[in-house]
Amino acid sequence: MIHIVTPENQHLFRDEMEQAYRLRHRVFVDEMKWTDLAREDGREIDQFDNAHAVHMLYIADGQVLGYQRMLPSTRPHLLSDVLPQLCEGERPVGPHIWEWTRYCVAPGHRERGRALSPVANALLSGIVEWGLASGISTIIIEMNPLWLLRLVQLYFRTTPLGLPQKVGDEDVLAVTASFDRRTLLRLQEMRGNNLRVLAEPEPTVRRLAG
């Protein structure tokens, strides 16, 4: 299940958030060699892990197997403050537009070939479920250009914001990706069920008692 963590309930997910920060460090620093993000404590945290961030965690048996972060486009985010060169025109801004960042899946739970892994499908489905319920219809993504075709196949309507540019050792492209009910149906079709992936919020008393 995908659990949404915000400042209001983050105290209920202290252990899971620690796992998430360490997963981020393992993926982005150890694997992808984004050495600027390295920290001695092995936790990848940046200036956008603030009161406005929405964290989404895939948790199974107490283990965080996948993670992603959503940032409002109306506040400072990667495209506005770190990678503005990726946007050649007017930067997309609005309450219905959020930025998708720090997507990562634990080794052993990633896709092989073209099919999305169950964790990856759930993370993407979580964005769409959350967005449809929250009046959000578009995400900003800074990504490898090879992801373009995959997003289109998942029924995201993608629009490049500029040409790919080198960021570190990788080509990175900024896009907007809009979604609707058809996107969710497509993701459900691919995983073979229409069950909700977002976990229902747990009562605070019950969570603390556990």
From TrEMBL:
Give this protein's Gene Ontology molecular function annotations: acyltransferase activity
Name the keywords, alphabetized. Answer: Acyltransferase, Autoinducer synthesis, Quorum sensing, S-adenosyl-L-methionine, Transferase
Keyword hit for Acyltransferase:
yes
Q: Which SUPFAM superfamilies match?
A: Acyl-CoA N-acyltransferases (Nat)
Q: What class of enzyme is it?
A: transferase
Q: Which reaction does it catalyse?
A: a fatty acyl-[ACP] + S-adenosyl-L-methionine = an N-acyl-L-homoserine lactone + S-methyl-5'-thioadenosine + holo-[ACP] + H(+)
E.C. number(s) listed in UniProt: 2.3.1.184
Q: Which InterPro entries match?
A: Acyl_CoA_acyltransferase (IPR016181), Autoind_synthase (IPR001690)
Q: Which family does it belong to?
A: Belongs to the autoinducer synthase family.
| Name this protein carries in UniProt | Acyl-homoserine-lactone synthase
Organism source for this protein? Microvirga puerhi
Q: What is the lineage of its organism?
A: Bacteria, Pseudomonadati, Pseudomonadota, Alphaproteobacteria, Hyphomicrobiales
